[in-house]
Amino acid sequence: MQDSLQLIADSLQLITDSIEQAEAQQWADSMAPLQAEFQRQYESKNPADDNIAATVFTILTVVVVFGGFLVYNVINNRYWERGIFPPFMLNRKINRYEAVVCLAVNIIRLDKDMYFEKRAYLQRFMSQHHSEIEGSVIDSFKSSLSAPVSTKSIAYWLNKHITSEKKTQLLDFLFDLATLDGQIGQKEYAELRMFCQQTGLSEQLLEQRVEQQRRARGERLYEEQQRTAQRTNYTSVNLKEKHMATLELTGILTEEDLKKAYRRLAKAYHPDVAVAGSEAESAELQQRFLAIQEAYDYLNDLV
């Protein structure tokens, strides 16, 4: 009988070594009542009369435990292959981690503008909120990208395992990810709207974020227009002053003064009139005349 009990213990230890600690603990907890009953039956009977029953029970225990674990993984793999987040997945940190990555991939796939920036944003978010998970986010990202999982099935699983507050935080993250390129597209909006519907969140939460994003974008555009106008105005003033200096004009610009100054300077620096002592002087006179012509054309549009 002791050999039988040792065989059961070794079997449970083998399973424990093959899966994550948290999952192994749940399997061990589920087997505890069965082991207790077996121990009670053993203590109440003569060991000599119970050898056959103990052997049978040992075999059945090993078969049930191994079989259950294998069936659990087979069923989950079938769901993954069909693009469905397995509804029977245990509530573990690694599974919540995968759920978030799958949701993020679904958003990024809809609009690949700033693709690498969005992927980097996902990495930062996961390192901040799931730092206890070892491994690269990129591996999970690539896996989800090659075999997408439906948002509806992810939401169904999340409803059983996280609070409304956590779901709201997740909506904020997905919205920020979708609008990283400055705006939210129709497909992204529809995906987030479905996420709200499937998780029981109010669609008003999404509408509020959309309105805030539009208002912030409008304010940024207005500020940029103001800065552009200021730069344009500053440039215009500088050009006017530059051209007036070229024509040796000061004070208030009038059409009469402009024409007088132009005729005087054009006559003085015209290549056919001005005398140059060398090729360098000739080139300098040519540049001076072109500057006078440019200044006159610019200022003439202002009077």
Structure write-up:
With 303 residues, this protein is an all-alpha fold. The chain folds into three domains: 2-81, no CATH class; 93-201, TerB-like; 222-300, DnaJ domain (Helix Hairpins), CATH 1.10.287.110. 78% of the residues lie in helices and 0% in strands. It is built from twelve helices and no strands. It has helices at residues 2-18, 21-44, 51-81, 93-110, 115-129, 137-146, 151-161, 164-178, 186-199, 203-246, 255-269, 279-300. α8 runs antiparallel to α9. The longest helix is centred in the C-terminal third of the chain and has 44 residues, at 203-246. It is rod-shaped, with a radius of gyration of 39 Å.
List the helices and strands and how they pair.
Elements: H1 2-18, H2 21-44, H3 51-81, H4 93-110, H5 115-129, H6 137-146, H7 151-161, H8 164-178, H9 186-199, H10 203-246, H11 255-269, H12 279-300
Helix pairs in contact: 1-2, 1-3, 4-5, 4-6, 4-8, 7-9, 8-9, 10-12, 11-12
Structural category: mainly alpha
- Percentage of residues assigned to helices: over 70%
Overall geometric form: rod-shaped
**Name given to the CATH homologous superfamily of the largest domain:** TerB-like
* Cα gyration radius (Å): 39 Å
How large is the count of helical segments?
Answer: 12
CATH fold field value of the largest domain: TerB-like
The low-pLDDT segments are 5-10
Mean pLDDT: 79
Separation, N- and C-terminal Cα atoms: 113 Å
Tally of individual domains: 3
Which range does the strand content fall in?
A: under 5%
CATH architecture type of the largest domain: Orthogonal Bundle
Please report the total strand number as a whole number: 0
Oligomeric organization of the protein chains: single chain
Q: Which sheet architecture does the biggest sheet show?
A: none
